[in-house]
Specification:
Layout: H1 4-94, H2 98-121, H3 123-126, H4 141-195, H5 200-223
């Protein structure tokens, strides 16, 4: 009896220490769970923010490119009309139809004036990045479209990164909850180990195995 009682007390003290360790570990794990939830909420907010910015930028891009390309088309169209009218007027003048030639020259001047005004207003002609390098050249439409879509592409990329971060931290938070459920089982086994005599070692070892599994699982979650 004198040997059994000290052994029993030592086991109970050991299980009390394990219970304390399990409690501290559960508290730390709860902190990790809260941190993961906070990070997931922050990433989710950033994802929605960048999604709205990207949508707004795409709408703005649609209006901007529609205006610039229509203005460019009108510029080319008026320039071509002016050229054709000038040539036709020249032919009429050579044929002796002075009145018709004068009328066509007037129309040609109007078309040329429209083309010059559109050129002055067009980013494709006024911006050195896209303006033609030759007098009758065509603007660099490829560079224009690439620059116009760059901001929306950057915003979409940021939104995708934020979305990936949200999924990552949300999955971590859910997994931490699963580990906490395992620690509840460890508490239960430690309680049984302290309240029984014949199966004390079995429940104590089982609790240690569960705690070790929880520690290893938590480590994998943190490094993933």
């Amino acid at each position: 009896m004198n040997e059994t009682a000290p052994n029993t007390d030592r086991f109970r003290i050991l299980f009390l220490v394990l219970t304390l360790v399990n409690t501290i570990f559960a508290a730390l794990l709860s902190g990790l769970h809260v941190d993961a939830n906070i990070r997931a909420d922050k990433a989710n907010g950033e994802s929605q923010y960048y999604a709205l910015l990207a949508a707004h930028e795409l709408v703005r891009l649609g209006y901007q490119t529609d205006y610039d390309l229509k203005l460019f088309a009108n510029t080319i169209n008026n320039a071509q009309q002016s050229t054709v009218l000038h040539l036709t007027a020249l032919e009429l003048e050579q044929a002796g139809e002075e009145e018709s030639a004068t009328r066509l020259l007037s129309q040609a001047d109007v078309a040329e004036a429209r083309s010059d005004k559109a050129t002055a207003l067009s980013m494709l002609y006024s911006d050195a990045r896209y303006a033609p390098t030759e007098p009758d050249g065509i603007p660099d439409l490829e560079a224009y479209l690439a620059d116009q879509s760059k901001m929306s592409s950057d915003l979409v990329e940021k939104q995708n990164r934020a979305s990936d971060a949200y999924r990552k931290w949300d999955n971590k938070a859910d997994t931490y909850s699963s580990v906490l459920s395992i620690l509840v089982l460890a508490f239960f086994l430690l309680g049984l180990a302290q309240s029984t005599d014949h199966t004390r070692l079995f429940f104590g070892i089982s609790a240690l195995v569960v705690m070790a599994l929880a520690v290893v699982w938590t480590g994998f979650i943190m490094i993933s």
